[in-house]
Every structure is written in structure tokens, then in C-alpha cells.
């Protein structure tokens, strides 16, 4: 559920730094909102997950173990909780270098590929 806020914040930050034009940010935030919440023409493309019991404690441990920021640690803890229930959950999509590195260390395939090690964050 945090991704709804983090994606919008990241896109607007890119606009403030001049990396994205206003029209691009508006298009991308609208498209992500549709992917996240669905449209009258179709269901959401993403499955949202509420914070699982114990996820905050696990996130605190992951923050220390992997040097993650709070939201990144919560996202990784949530992904690990999902994987514990559904072994097919083997992928994590992120443009955050630190989260990708930690997710790869926890056994996730990271999308976009090649971002987990050595590349700079977006």
C-alpha cells in the first residue's frame, strides 16, 4: 500500500529536479493510479497488501540488516510475508538501489533487472 504514495512522491521529485516534464508526471501518476486502483474498464494490475502482523518488527530488523530506509524496509518485509504464503512471489519491482540490493540478498528476482548491484538509483 505504501507504493501508492512512494511512486507519486518519486515522480514529483523527478519533476522538481527537472528530470521529468509536468505532462510526463501527470501521465505517469495517472497511469500508476489506474494500475494501482483499476479503472471502469478493468481491474487493478497490482495486488495491494495491507501491513501483515509482525511486519513492522521484521521491517525494523531488515532496516538494520540491509541499511534500508523505513518505507523500503516495510516494503521488503511485506514482500517477504507474501512470499511466505505464496512461494510463486519471487519478484520485486523497484527503482530504488538499496531496496533492490536488499531484495536480491533476500532471494528475490529484482525488476528492472540489473539494478540490484552496481547501478545508481533512479
Question: What would you note in describing this structure?
Answer:
With 122 residues, the protein is mainly alpha-helical. The chain folds into two domains: 3-37; 55-111, no CATH class. It is built from five helices and two strands. It has helices at 3-16, 22-37, 55-66, 70-85, 97-105, and strands at residues 91-93, 109-111. Strands 1-2 form a two-stranded parallel ribbon. Helix 1 (3-16) packs antiparallel against helix 2 and helix 3 packs across helix 4 (70-85). The longest helix has 16 residues, at 22-37. The two termini are 21 Å apart. The model is unreliable at 115-122 (pLDDT under 50).
Radius of gyration using CA atoms only: 15 Å
Roughly what percent helix? 40-55%
Mean pLDDT: 89
Total individual domains: 2
- What's the helix count? 5
Order of helices and strands: HHHHEHE
- Biggest sheet: strands side by side, in what order? 1-2
Unreliable segments of 5+ consecutive residues: 115-122
Shape annotation: globular
Largest sheet: 2 strands, parallel
Percent in strands = under 5%
Instruction: Give the structural class.
Output: mainly alpha
